[in-house]
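As noted in the main text, all predictions were made from sequence alone. Below is one such record, for NCS1 family nucleobase:cation symporter-1.
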Amino acid sequence: MSETVAPPEEGVGTPARASARSESRAYDPRLTNADLAPLERQTWGAYNIFAFWMSDVHSVGGYVTAGSLFALGLASWQVLVALVIGIGIVQLFCNLVAKPSQRTGVPYPVICRSAFGVLGANIPAIIRGLIAVAWYGIQTFLASAALDVVLVKLFPGLAPYAVVAEHGFLGLSMLGWGSYLLLWVLQACVFWRGMESIRRFIDFCGPAVYVVMFALCGYLIARAGWDAIDLNLSTVTHTGWSAVPVMLGAIALVVSYFSGPMLNFGDFSRYARSFAAVERGNLLGLPVNFLVFSLLVVVTASLTVPIYGELITDPVQTVARIDNTFAIVLGALTFTIATIGINIVANFVSPAFDFSNVDPRKISWRAGGMIAAVGSLVITPWNLYNNPEVIHYTLETLGACIGPLFGVLLADYYLVRKQHVVVEDLFTLSPRGSYWYRGGYNPAAIIATLLGAAAAVFPVLTAGEVTGMYTAAQYSWFIGCGVGLLGYLALATRGRFRLPIPETP
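Prediction:
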């Protein structure tokens, strides 16, 4: 049995120690490659983590989500309370999921080997990879749709080619195909250059959107005046105790929106030079950044009513109404780039690690990313996006599994193993390894995941048919996470699946 690696002092990276040890003890090639092995150097600071969250929040999807919170029939102060609580929960969970990867220097599918087994970790990796591929395609489609708006505005003669019935193939117009493939290639190029290029890209994306957002907001204020600002995008209909369930739903919506990046966060926190840098970056990027962005969104959206006579919640559509060609191009391209940024950090990098983890000898990180990219094209994501039933029964069902995976990881690292990981044993197929369990699979983690997924999926699939399930479906992530965490804790600490946890020094 390898010596247990305790969490290092702040600022001292376990990966450096692990790297030194690996010189004398080779990792099994069936479980490792240069991309999955512990990092030798961790260089990201708090700003890089901050920029990661800016890229994740500052998108068309983030804009619409933030705006929808102010249209729930709540008073503005109630929305702000829900936002603070919701994003505070996200910050807490992100700090928790960041620590094991930052301390060991390994990505999510590798750290999952401690809970699921060195082979069983492919189960959460594949689930997460499939979800990411689908949403990668959908986000690319949404970005290409924004680009279509700009192209038609600048070149009206292209309008007929934006109609599927006249010039379409497999459900997408000719112009749509051109825009989609262009963005598909651009994202692949950024990804192919490696994590350092991705870091520089996301360092630029988030601040760039802020510049455009403030400029857009200033332009609208100049036209409508300060008196036109209204922080309520709909009539306040919920007061007193009747507002509590709606506020709880808003909190759940915030957490659910960030559920994917929360689970993926270890893939990025592994690059941080210290856990303190992660905490500072999360503080700036989540509570501070999300609140500022949300207020900016609601002010901008509210100003569209007196100026354009209707509420416009899509920033690209708002930009398209400006009577200035340069402003239209700059604004729409900025939001397009922002969507590319969130797509890369949320739906490209992570499945690359996931698919590489399946067979590290044959699938590098870059190859894993290209598998995800090709898969996102093959599934024709525009047809998925335009079919709510498919999304409901496929993507939402898979998405309900995110909570249990999160719960199992936290239970294993914090409650069962008390933050101790044997780094070398994450990369060995020896039956004597700490994470071999039963043939490389940990039954406790698999059963807990199945229980949590079943508990989370049931309200999602029966919403609208079984009394109370529509409300319960809003909290599917919490249900899955809680059942997965408690189920794993119970199975791993008692009974036939109890884990033989060695004494820690």
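The longest strand covers residues 168-169. Confidence is low (pLDDT under 50) at residues 1-24. These features were considered when defining construct boundaries for the mutagenesis experiments described in Section 2.9.
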